[in-house]
Amino acid sequence: MEKSKVYFTNMRATGNMNLLQKLERLVKKAGIEQIDFKGKYTAIKIHFGEPGNLAYLRPNYAKVIADVIKKQGGKVFLTDCNTLYVGRRKDALEHMDAAYENGYNPFTTGCQIIIGDGLKGTDEAYVPVPCGECVKEAKIGRAVMDADILISMNHFKGHELTGFGGSLKNIGMGSGSRAGKMEMHSDGKPRVRAKACVGCGACVKICAHSAISITDKKASIDHNKCVGCGRCIGVCHFDAIAAAWDASNDVLNKKIAEYTWAVLNGRPHFHISLVIDVSPNCDCHAENDVPLIPDIGMFASFDPVALDMACADMANQAPVVSGSYLAERLEQQKQPAKDHFYATHPETNWMSCVDHAEKIGIGTKAYELIEI
């Protein structure tokens, strides 16, 4: 397979060229203007950041890309789907409040925000995955699938379950509805936290399969009837229902790749990753730790697999930041890091995601790095 082109620029800036101007130059050199945006609904898939976390991408970067698309006649919006876990982004209202709090709004980005899977995480499209080994029908946020074009803007960082979070993680996991996220994370069904349950019955009313009942003012779920749709999680006002988190990391990574295939298949797409503020964990955390490595730069490509590989390779070549979690891990292990992300989270295997993504035809790990 022919190598994919990945374009790169570092984080140096001058009085004649600031970082936002460098980002615009990068994506244009990488060919974003080759896409026919005129009159097309264009989703920029991004992570707005959990409030309290300060490592997420600044909205200034998103505005650069939104402006490029608007100049080409595109009808652009920013999007992300609701979370499976309990936090500030578990429904569309809180999610948009969190986005605004972190600086994402039409005034700072020049475009609207649409939460991809609706108010409670249940507005989803069912997308067949004929190449899937683990997923036969992905559950994707409807607004994501309604878009004509998909642009991903990715904060490249460590991740406690997948090794790192880049373009594949942002697209695959991030575009899944609540039921989709549960399918990726879990081989099982949701459970009730009895101590938190007040027996209000909201979950009973929402369940279309009569799988939930109330006994002694506590809900219980019949897993023989439950289909794993996750609607009970979204409707519970007391965070008393939780998903199982029992899928192995390799299976999780394969599912992420297959969901990515479902999102990208059959429409134009383009991908941008910023390897900056590389925290150990996901931006879903309400905190961020000292970066593992110094800031590397900005990358762009039509191939999300090659993009993730290029980002990982350059990150692994970077020195470790003194005092970081990674530095502590390496001191404990008493050996140099060959893979910063595996050393940070040794129970993970990030290669299983890019390997599977290449296998099912999303892209190639082979790339040509072109520095701008």
From TrEMBL:
Which species expresses this protein natively? Anaerospora hongkongensis
Q: Plastid: present as a keyword of the record?
A: no
Gene Ontology terms, MF aspect? 4 iron, 4 sulfur cluster binding; metal ion binding
Q: Which Gene3D superfamilies match?
A: 3.30.70.20, 3.40.50.11440
What's the name of the protein?
Answer: 4Fe-4S ferredoxin-type domain-containing protein
Q: Which residues form the 4Fe-4S ferredoxin-type domain?
A: 188-216, 217-246
Q: InterPro entries from the xrefs?
A: 4Fe4S_Fe-S-bd (IPR017896), DUF362 (IPR007160), PSI_iron-sulfur_center (IPR050157)
- Does the keyword field hold Metal-binding? yes
Which purpose does this protein serve, as stated in its record? Ferredoxins are iron-sulfur proteins that transfer electrons in a wide variety of metabolic reactions.
Residue ranges crossing the lipid bilayer per the database entry: none
For this UniProt record, the keywords arranged alphabetically read as follows: 4Fe-4S, Iron, Iron-sulfur, Metal-binding
